[in-house]
Amino acid sequence: AEQNRELRERLMQLKKERNAIILAHYYQRDEIQEVADFRGDSFLLAQKAAETDADVIVFCGVHFMGESAKILAPNKTVIIPDERAGCPMADMVNVDGLRKLKAQHPNAKVVTYINSSAEIKAETDICCTSANAVRVVNSVDSDEIIWVPDKNLGHYVQQKTDKKMIIWEGYCNTHDMLTVKDVEEMKAKYPNAQFVVHPECRPEVVELGDFVGSTTAIIKYCKESDCQEFIVGTEDGTGYQLRLDSPNKTFHFATKYLVCPNMKVNNLKKLVKCLETMQPQIYVPEDVADKARLSLERMLQVK
Ligand code: 13P
Ligand code: SF4
């Protein structure tokens, strides 16, 4: 605790010196969420990165999030606590594969989940997050959509839109691990609890949800609901904001495996160190960034 106090003091000092802003995803460790200027889901954090007038953005999340921040704020310095924090789902789609699919479906528009590399975004018509996926797909002026990379979110969106979606086979290792059996056992154990679930989970698991949404949407739902007890079907870091917003409610994570190891690579010590050394920095080649930026800016304009 003493060490963390010293780290936090050093952090505040560095933040001032560098004119930096700290953004943290809800899946980050508590010790990082505690010191962030903004906590949020992928959508809010992309918005904050685009809007900030700080000189430095410290992005506590996984690599694609830092990349999106750099693309949206090309004149800012974007640093991350550890460049090994990647997203396995983002790595499940490659440019060659996507180009092949585009050649096979020349009339389709490409909608890409923000959990993807800058190179994939550069091949994309419009990005989305789990918070706006249905709205984004419906906003596209084509009846045919190529959807990458998350098959589970893709399946969820397909149920809510009339457009024909050609869905890539990627998935999130962490959310995809949750099974119907896990959820049914928890429901039997906590019969008064509602099940709130992220659409990165398997379709048959999402189907069991009393509420389905992005991390922000789940947190908001739990806060506003009359229900006092929840089974949570998303990454365990969301517990920080859930308990902060609803201190008198009870939250049971659906399994103890709902932990994204990449998100947990970052810690307070590395956060302080990256502001000290200004490394590692995110770099995106200009031609890639210019194309990718269009797809992200289009997303930010969808109401
Ligand atoms: P959201 O916070 O946008 O719901 O994203 C979930 C996720 O898996 C991010 O990696
Ligand atoms: Fe990627 Fe899943 Fe981790 Fe999010 S939770 S960063 S989608 S692996």
UniProtKB/TrEMBL annotation:
<dbReference type="GO" id="GO:0005737">
    <property type="term" value="C:cytoplasm"/>
</dbReference>
<comment type="function">
    <text>Catalyzes the condensation of iminoaspartate with dihydroxyacetone phosphate to form quinolinate.</text>
</comment>
<keyword id="KW-0411">Iron-sulfur</keyword>
<feature type="coiled-coil region">
    <location>
        <begin position="1"/>
        <end position="24"/>
    </location>
</feature>
<feature type="binding site">
    <location>
        <position position="130"/>
    </location>
    <ligand>
        <name>iminosuccinate</name>
    </ligand>
</feature>
<keyword id="KW-0963">Cytoplasm</keyword>
<keyword id="KW-0004">4Fe-4S</keyword>
<dbReference type="InterPro" id="IPR003473">
    <property type="entry name" value="NadA"/>
</dbReference>
<comment type="pathway">
    <text>Cofactor biosynthesis; NAD(+) biosynthesis; quinolinate from iminoaspartate: step 1/1.</text>
</comment>
<feature type="binding site">
    <location>
        <position position="172"/>
    </location>
    <ligand>
        <name>[4Fe-4S] cluster</name>
    </ligand>
</feature>
<dbReference type="GO" id="GO:0051539">
    <property type="term" value="F:4 iron, 4 sulfur cluster binding"/>
</dbReference>
<keyword id="KW-0408">Iron</keyword>
<dbReference type="InterPro" id="IPR023066">
    <property type="entry name" value="Quinolinate_synth_type2"/>
</dbReference>
<dbReference type="GO" id="GO:0034628">
    <property type="term" value="P:'de novo' NAD+ biosynthetic process from L-aspartate"/>
</dbReference>
<feature type="binding site">
    <location>
        <position position="42"/>
    </location>
    <ligand>
        <name>iminosuccinate</name>
    </ligand>
</feature>
<feature type="binding site">
    <location>
        <begin position="113"/>
        <end position="115"/>
    </location>
    <ligand>
        <name>iminosuccinate</name>
    </ligand>
</feature>
<feature type="binding site">
    <location>
        <position position="260"/>
    </location>
    <ligand>
        <name>[4Fe-4S] cluster</name>
    </ligand>
</feature>
<feature type="binding site">
    <location>
        <position position="25"/>
    </location>
    <ligand>
        <name>iminosuccinate</name>
    </ligand>
</feature>
<keyword id="KW-0175">Coiled coil</keyword>
<comment type="similarity">
    <text>Belongs to the quinolinate synthase family. Type 2 subfamily.</text>
</comment>
<feature type="binding site">
    <location>
        <position position="87"/>
    </location>
    <ligand>
        <name>[4Fe-4S] cluster</name>
    </ligand>
</feature>
<dbReference type="InterPro" id="IPR036094">
    <property type="entry name" value="NadA_sf"/>
</dbReference>
<keyword id="KW-0479">Metal-binding</keyword>
<dbReference type="GO" id="GO:0046872">
    <property type="term" value="F:metal ion binding"/>
</dbReference>
<protein>
    <recommendedName>
        <fullName>Quinolinate synthase</fullName>
        <ecNumber>2.5.1.72</ecNumber>
    </recommendedName>
</protein>
<dbReference type="GO" id="GO:0008987">
    <property type="term" value="F:quinolinate synthetase A activity"/>
</dbReference>
<feature type="binding site">
    <location>
        <position position="215"/>
    </location>
    <ligand>
        <name>iminosuccinate</name>
    </ligand>
</feature>
<keyword id="KW-0808">Transferase</keyword>
<keyword id="KW-0662">Pyridine nucleotide biosynthesis</keyword>
<dbReference type="Pfam" id="PF02445">
    <property type="entry name" value="NadA"/>
</dbReference>
<feature type="binding site">
    <location>
        <begin position="198"/>
        <end position="200"/>
    </location>
    <ligand>
        <name>iminosuccinate</name>
    </ligand>
</feature>
